[in-house]
Design a protein that fits this description.
The chain is an alpha+beta fold. Helix content is 45%, strand content 23%.
Length: 1015
């Protein structure tokens, strides 16, 4: 019995020991298993929470286009996108896995999203201070991140990972019921206890098998643990305290390429080699970091796992310590997953975002350099977002806090504002683009040109919501366009002026100055002005050509210095080293600019060139006259000798009483008249200034020239005239025509020479058709053609090509200047005509002068009329001339025909006599060239006492006084000596009668002598 008891005691003791061993082993195994499962789950849900937090932030950054805080609607939009992507996410978390998002609103936690299996019902709001019902979400909304075991909103203890999503102010919680995690352990414990109880009941018979049963149960527990590990979707590696691999799940084996049997006891860096994707350098062993720190550690971004076969994968992982009851690290659980595709997607998003940022920067830079600003207008409230360059265009140095369409219109100039707004309203109404150019006034007052264009933007419902576009400062372009247009206008004006200058041969300086002034007014937008011709001796204005009411602008004599000040612009015309003219323009609206001055200076340069040409033409014509005068000198001397011989001879007949006095007086008078006409012809021919064009019949002038040439050319040359139309009228300068015919006849006579021959002068009327006009380079129509034919030796084609060149001559040195035909060519062109020559060696030469004919008959001939009977009259005459003989003749003649005459040779005595009795005379007759006082000076002093006094002016020759100047000076009559007494008597009777109110004002033309070319 005692042995039995002892045996039973031993059995019980052994059983107790066995139970203790089994209990301790099972407790230790279950505790380790429970701790391992918890750590694995902590790492897994922590990694899941972190990855979801990164994914949401990335989605937010890719979705939002502005840095402001998102609205509630935008937050809900992001959550709706997440909801669609979270279908089936909980399959790896078992039956109680859950994810939730919430916000703190006031003193409550309000859930925005929650999914547990297929259930997405939102929990009710939870008070903020109730940590016993929502500990994980409370910590998340407090801005914390981590893993906790505690009650959730359902009051259930859960294992939860929480994260704070800062941009959206959201709390994120990933949780699983702690009870679900304990289920495998509980089931294993229940099975183990059942087996243990069964072993106790069997007794010692089964003692031998007790240890095997326990081991089997432990194996089963380990199998359960393996099942749990293998069910995790991420890779899991468990290491011991030394960092060597002890466990791996299939996912880890697949990712690393290491099967567990080969990986066991291997250092973690061998099985899980990690490098930095950027530097390609090994990363710090995460297990070693956890063992040192005792905290959960995560891998840095850009971590790459190099598998055993060399495959590279981007991974995300976290490592958590396994702690024993003394909180000492006894191993590490490493959870990692393949995020290659996720990382690639995130990188692509980041690259896209960077490209977008770079594009925006390049766009902003391009807009800035192109003076372009972007704008985006809300069509509901008319507020706009802009770029900085937009506001700079309107003169603001920095971006304004706000901008509206009304602010834009305030900057638009009033004259452009209506049209701009009309286009805006039309663009909105018709859904068309808004594009226009207008002027704005910047905030600093500067006026600038801008170009604005914009297009419409629709919202998701198709409603017109916004308009966006650009604004560009185009002031420089508009200024360049205006400058180009102005330069084009100036070039056209200068080209026209230059063309007119080319055709200006024969035009007077006043006519040329008028064209210069008209062009200057047009290109500067002036209202009026004048051109002054500057006297080279005095430097003062000699002749003024005005246009417009310049005096109403308060302008007087122009300054000789160039000036572009105010509203008067005066520019000198400089030829060589002296000022020859002055161009002055004025306006009322604006001040002149340096550009205006530069343009007028260009016109002045052209004017100077033309004036030089006009001066050269004058000198050329004068030189031609001198050459012709030299040729005519012999003939004129011969004719004068004949005239003097007649006068002297008849006087001797009177002295010796051989002839009757009446016949002698008639012969002397005829000879004197011949001498007078000869002098007039010589003065007309040698005059330096061209006369005005006038309408006249060229027949009398032609006869007068041939009469002169008859006395000049040798008698061996036969001169014939052939006038085929005696009723022609031409518009020309009589002096020019006189000179042309003389030069052509002289040239023909020199060609014939002493051997003798014939010169034929033909005057005819021809109608030039269009085809012939093109060959002659003249206009079609009627022409008076003067042909000079000679029987000389003719010319070769080589000589004919050069005969009109100045200074070209075939004569020997000293026998001619070669200017005659050049003067002819230039003079005829100045009248719009043409000179044509035909010749051949041995066939003589024919020069044809084509002058435009006019249909209106000539008003008068240029040859003096025959003498008419003397008109008697009554009146008081004051007669002054420095030649005593002329005073005697004039006094006696006028007294004889009924006038009371006071004569004197001293103009100063005459002036004194007049001043004593200014009303004692009806007419004053004065010579021009006298010592003491000239005729015009005497007239000025007489008019100071009696402004209405009629004054007759006589001159033998004066380059200071012409017919035009006499009219301008107010003389009643003007004569070239010798004066025909018949004309003087007639004029006196008309002037005195008109002064007494018996007749109207007579024409000045009827009082002037009618010598050829002289008014």
């Amino acid at each position: 019995m005692r042995r039995f008891f002892k045996g039973w005691s031993r059995f019980l003791l052994l059983l107790g020991i066995m139970l203790a061993v089994v209990g301790i082993s099972m407790g230790t195994s279950l505790s380790m298993l429970h701790q391992s499962i918890l750590e694995v789950e902590k790492v897994r849900i922590s990694a899941m929470a972190k990855s979801q937090e990164r994914l949401i932030v990335t989605l937010y950054q890719a979705t939002m286009q502005h840095p402001q805080a998102p609205s509630q609607a935008e937050t809900e939009h992001i959550l709706s996108l997440l909801t669609q992507s979270y279908q089936g996410w909980h399959e790896g978390l078992g039956n109680t896995g859950e994810i939730a998002f919430a916000q703190r609103r006031g003193e409550q936690i309000e859930y925005l999203f929650r999914q547990r299996q297929a259930d997405t019902t939102l929990p009710k709001p939870v008070p903020w201070d109730r940590l016993d019902v929502s500990l994980p979400m409370h910590r998340a909304l407090a801005g914390e991140s981590g893993v906790v075991i505690g009650p959730n909103y359902r009051g259930v203890t859960v294992l939860a990972a929480y994260e704070f999503i800062a941009p959206l102010h959201l709390g994120l919680v990933v949780e699983i019921d702690l009870a679900e995690l304990d289920t495998p352990l509980r089931e294993a414990t229940e099975k183990t206890l059942a087996i243990a109880l069964l072993a106790l009941l069997v007794g010692s018979l089964l003692f031998a098998r007790i240890s095997e049963g326990v081991i089997q149960k432990i194996r089963i527990s380990e199998q359960n643990l393996a099942i749990t590990l293998n069910s995790i979707g991420d890779g899991v590696i468990v290491t011991d305290q030394a960092g060597c691999v002890t466990r791996m799940n299939p996912v880890a084996e697949a990712l690393t390429g290491w099967p567990l049997p080969e990986a066991a006891r291997q250092p973690l860096p061998t099985v899980l080699p990690l490098i930095n994707a950027m530097t390609r350098q090994p990363v710090v062993d995460p297990v070693a970091k956890v063992i040192r720190s005792g905290r959960v550690e995560g891998l840095a971004n850009h971590t790459i796992l190099i598998a055993r076969d060399g495959t590279e994968r981007q991974i995300a992982d976290s490592a958590a310590p396994m702690l024993d009851p003394k909180q000492q690290v006894m191993g590490v659980v490493l959870v990692f997953r393949d995020v290659t595709e996720e990382y690639r997607t995130r990188e692509e998003i980041e690259r896209s975002e960077q490209r977008l940022r770079d594009s925006r920067q390049r766009l902003e830079l391009a807009l800035r350099w192109g003076h372009m600003g972007g704008w985006d207008l809300d069509l509901l409230d008319h507020t706009a977002n802009r770029t900085l360059e937009h506001d700079r265009i309107f003169g603001y140095p920095s971006l304004l806090p706000a901008w509206t369409y009304a602010m834009f219109l305030e900057h638009v100039l009033p004259e452009d504002r209506f049209e701009v707004d009309r286009r805006f309203q039309e663009a909105i109404k018709t859904f068309s683009d808004w594009s226009f150019e207008c002027r704005i006034r910047r905030v600093d007052g500067a006026v600038r040109w801008i170009w604005v264009t914009g297009g419409h933007q629709m919202d998701e419902t198709g409603t017109l919501r916004r308009m966006a576009g650009v604004v560009q400062d185009i002031t420089e372009r508009k200024q360049a366009e205006a400058a180009t247009l102005r330069e084009k206008e100036v070039q056209v004006a200068l080209a026209r002026l230059g063309k007119a200058f080319l055709a200006s041969q024969g035009m007077s300086v006043a006519e040329i100055a008028h064209g210069v002034l008209a062009t200057s007014l047009a290109v500067t937008g002036s209202h009026g002005g004048f051109v002054d011709e500057i006297d080279p001796l005095t430097g003062l204005s000699s002749t003024r050509t005005p246009i417009g009411e310049i005096e109403t602008l308060g302008l007087g004599q122009a300054s000789p210095d160039p000036a572009a000040a105010g509203r008067l612009l005066s520019v000198p015309v400089i030829s060589g080293d002296r000022t020859v003219a002055q161009i002055t323009v004025a306006n009322r609206e604006r001040d002149y600019t340096p550009d205006d001055q530069a343009i007028v200076e260009r016109i002045a340069d052209l004017f100077a060139i033309v004036l030089e040409r006009v001066n050269l033409e004058r000198q050329l014509r004068h030189a031609g006259r001198l050459e012709a005068v030299g040729t005519l000198a012999g003939g004129i001397a011969h004719d004068f000798n004949n005239i003097l011989a007649i006068i002297i001879g008849n006087m001797e007949l009177v002295t010796f009483g051989v002839s009757e006095l009446e016949d002698v007086v008639k012969n002397i008078s005829d000879a004197a008249n011949r001498g007078r006409d000869l002098v007039r012809q010589l003065l007309t021919f040698s005059r330096q200034t061209s006369g005005d064009k006038q309408r006249f019949n060229p027949v009398p002038l032609l006869k007068e020239v041939l009469k002169l040439m008859r006395s000049t050319l040798p008698t061996s040359i036969d001169i014939r005239e052939d006038i085929r139309d005696a009723n022609l009228s031409i518009l020309a300068d009589s002096t020019m025509l006189y000179q042309v015919i003389v030069n052509l006849c002289t040239n023909a006579g020199q060609a014939i020479g002493e051997a003798g021959g014939r010169i034929t002068v033909v005057l005819e009327r021809l109608l030039i058709a269009a085809d012939q006009a093109r060959l002659l380079q003249i206009r079609s129509g009627p022409y008076a053609v003067i042909s000079v034919l000679d029987t000389g030796p003719g010319m070769s084609p080589e000589i004919m090509e050069r005969i009109f060149e100045p200074f070209f001559t075939t004569k020997r040195v000293g026998q001619g200047t070669g200017l005659g035909l050049a003067v002819v060519h230039g003079a005829v062109q100045g009248c719009g005509g043409k000179v044509q020559v035909e010749s051949a060696p041995g066939a003589g030469a024919t020069f044809r002068v084509y002058l435009p004919a006019v249909e209106t008959p000539a008003q008068h001939d240029l040859v003096a009329p025959d003498q008419t009977p003397v008109t008697r009259g009554k009146g008081r005459i004051l007669f002054v001339d420095d030649e005593a003989g002329l005073v005697q003749v004039g006094t006696e003649f006028l007294t004889a025909i009924g006038y009371s005459v006071v004569g004197n040779t001293d103009p100063l005595e005459v002036l004194a006599h007049f001043q004593q009795a200014p009303d004692a005379f009806d007419v004053v007759i004065t010579d021009q060239t006298m010592p003491g006082l000239t005729g015009d000076q005497l007239a000025e002093k007489i008019r100071a006492h009696r402004p209405d006094m009629p004054i007759f002016l006589c001159t033998g020759y004066s380059d200071r006084m012409t017919r035009e100047k006499a009219i301008e000076a107010g003389f009643a009559r003007f004569y070239i000596k010798p004066v025909a007494m018949v004309d003087l008597a007639q004029d006196l009777q008309e002037v005195i009668a008109q002064d007494k109110g018996q007749h109207g004002t007579p024409s000045m033309d009827c009082a002037l002598p009618a010598a050829p070319g002289q008014g």
